[in-house]
Specification:
By secondary structure, the chain is of the alpha/beta class. The protein contains 18 helices and eleven strands. The structure holds NADP nicotinamide-adenine-dinucleotide phosphate.
Length: about 400
């Protein structure tokens, strides 16, 4: 193509006002010759979405909360922008499917991102997946959609992104690879023995990564690593007994692949999400990310230890759900989302989060869901179950 502008990739960011959204926009801002922002979405933060529209002038801005669509349209008009406003969950799906969009960055937090992420896959978009809950809940449907439409799925989660990079060294991963090793920083409570009285502020103060509140709490309970084990199993086609987790507090090695010949490949870098985002945006080329370079002489000793599954049972619960099947993974995720929300509202103590999830998992039954509607129904059922459990005073005291 001779027109450089026409060759630019059109980008839609689902969840543009969040932490991954901000890191993505930072990388995109460094490459105006390669990318143009076509659609941005948020859930309720109209002001932040309008600010982003001022900076990037997308064709479309969509807000998940339908009641805010009118205000969004008004604010965009006031700002003198030609960006079209839309609202409601369907508007997010439309944003992902837009004809001028080549690449969708799925960065909504939670199962709320599932429908729009799946729509992007079905529409054959290049899909940059950060929204791990979508693949945890509907791995089979999502991968089927990617295959059916010949979409290209690239993981943004730093661990899976690292594995994607390491697997480039194997022609046939299933035979060449012995196991995948996901690293975990250990979160803010790695060395804390008494977790009673932990506050949302303490749980969200991650020592290495600056992230949204839900994933920060998941990192503190190690559920984040559990969700990532399930995500890795779907993305790379590995059974749970070929996926290990190792605590690596420095967060310099983002994950590793052990090959049958004894070689172990690791991907390293500073803990900055702009690196995996730039890798996925540029793939198969490499583009600058803006991340600080890794200075090995300053990085200090790299340590590794086994996760303490007694103190952080969420990791064990995630393996248990993965072995039990897709319905259990949906229940695990839904129970976790409700429990974390309750903790962030200072209703449920931090230490009770795993017990609530365990109880919901124990009650969960049902075969693999064959449609998005069935996934969403199982998700709603598990949320109802969890909320009912939480009304028991024994959980919250
Ligand atoms: N942050 C990281 O470093 C990181 C790393 C790896 C993977 N991830 C994954 O990336 C995803 C996003 O994480 P994050 O840290 O960026 O989260 P975040 O900062 O909380 O941002 C979440 C984004 O999703 C939108 N959103 C929330 N609820 C929604 C709903 N019901 N419907 C539609 N949109 C909704 C938010 O809009 P409003 O602003 O309007 O609420 C916001 O734009 C998560 O799945 C997380 O596990 C994050």
């Amino acid at each position: 193509m001779s027109d450089g502008k026409a060759a630019r990739q059109g980008i839609c960011i689902l969840g543009a006002t969040g932490s991954i959204g901000a890191s993505t926009l930072d990388v995109l801002g460094r490459h105006p010759d390669l990318f143009r922002v076509v659609a941005l979405t948020a859930n309720s933060n109209v002001d932040a979405l309008v600010d982003l529209c001022r900076r990037f002038e997308p064709e479309l801005a969509a807000i998940g909360d339908a009641s805010l669509a009118g205000r969004l349209a008004q604010e965009l008009r006031k700002a003198g922008l030609r960006t079209t406003a839309s609202g409601g969950p369907d508007a997010l799906v439309q944003a992902a499917r837009l004809g001028s969009v080549d690449c969708v960055v799925a960065a909504i937090v939670g199962a709320a991102g599932l429908s729009a992420t799946l729509a992007a896959a079905r529409a054959g978009k290049r899909l940059l997946l950060a929204n791990k809950e979508a693949i945890v809940c509907a791995g089979s449907l999502l991968l089927e959609a990617v295959r059916g439409s010949r979409a290209n799925l690239l993981p943004v989660d730093s661990e899976h992104n690292a594995i994607h990079q390491c697997l480039a060294a194997a022609r046939d991963a299933n035979h060449a690879v012995k196991r995948l090793i996901l690293t975990a920083s250990g979160g803010p409570f790695l060395r804390r023995t008494d977790l009673a009285g932990v506050t949302p502020e303490q749980a969200c103060a991650h020592p290495k990564w600056n992230m949204g509140r839900k994933i920060s709490v998941d990192s503190a309970t190690l559920m984040n690593k559990g969700l990532e084990v399930i995500e890795a199993s779907w993305l790379f086609g590995f059974a749970p007994d070929r996926i290990d987790v190792v605590i690596h507090p420095q967060s310099v090695i983002h994950s590793l692949v052990e090959f049958v010949d004894g070689s172990v490949l690791a991907q390293m870098g500073t803990p900055d999400m702009r690196t995996p985002i730039a890798y996925a945006l540029g793939f198969p080329e490499r583009i600058a990310s803006g991340s600080p370079r890794l200075d090995l002489l300053q990085a200090g000793p790299l340590q590794f230890e086994a996760p303490n599954q007694e103190q952080f049972p969420c990791l064990r619960l995630a393996y248990q759900a993965l072995r039990a099947g897709p319905a259990a993974c949906i229940a695990l995720n839904a129970a976790n989302e409700v429990a974390v929300d309750s903790f962030l509202k200072r209703e449920l103590p931090f230490v009770r989060i795993p017990a609530v999830i365990q109880e919901v998992l124990a009650r969960c039954s049902g075969g693999p869901p064959g449609s998005i509607e069935a996934v969403l129904e199982l998700d709603r059922e598990a949320r109802r179950e969890t909320r009912t459990l939480l009304t028991r005073s024994t959980w919250t005291s």
